[in-house]
């Protein structure tokens, strides 16, 4: 299995997005990479500053004080924050009876891959409509337990006008979701095609059964099943990001000799990168 690494050394040309980079590496000790990794912030800005389905460019600005990333245009004013969407549960107290059965090396492998770009998203970062932010709701809603597959199913239902455990929160951010026009547009924009099948149905890491089953793994077998499916998704999304980066972002010389950027063309959802 691919493992995360610090990235290329000096004097070498590299893709603008290094999907093997573990964002904990350039984060101050004891701090959250979502807020304090400069590489993660730069990668978010590079990846998601691109045309929306409408043709408007969703340019992201990192220079506004007090905002992680922001976009202001005729489309509206949006403050965005980063979110690591791959919970390993290795730090959850109530999961220790299960995850404690795994060697630390296996737990660290999970954490390491989870902190690469394939495990990252951006969401609106300011509470709206008296609701919790999407990031907070994902973590505190017991029927979601921070899982990205369950979050994505809620988003799919939001676009279809259906109920879900996150319905009221997602409705509060309807303006953000309208940017992508449809569930398919959301999937394509954020390069999430490996988390849906060719029909647009979400590929769950564990059985969902209309959110009636427990969101967290209940034993060591289900935890290992969850870990396997989750890491497969992260690896596939990293490959998709690599493909997009190589085609649309091109390369940067790490000695500062120049940067070039191509025209974004999104991979189709439900199909692996070629």
Average pLDDT taken over every residue: 89
Cα separation of the termini: 19 Å
- Report the major sheet: 3 strands, antiparallel
Overall, the morphology is globular
Order of helices and strands: EHHEEHHEHHHHHHEE
User: What is the C-alpha radius of gyration, as a whole number of Å?
Assistant: 18 Å
Helix content: 25-40%
Helix/strand/pairing category: alpha+beta
Kindly estimate the percentage of residues that lie in beta strands according to DSSP. 5-15%
Tell me what you see in this structure.
With 274 residues, the protein is an alpha+beta fold. The protein has one domain (15-250). It is built from ten helices and six strands. The protein has helices at 33-36, 38-48, 96-99, 104-114, 134-140, 148-160, 167-172, 174-178, 183-189, 220-249, and strands at residues 13-15, 69-73, 76-84, 120-124, 251-253, 258-259. The protein has a three-stranded antiparallel sheet with strand order 1-5-6. The chain has a three-stranded antiparallel sheet with strand order 2-3-4. The protein is globular and about 50 Å long.
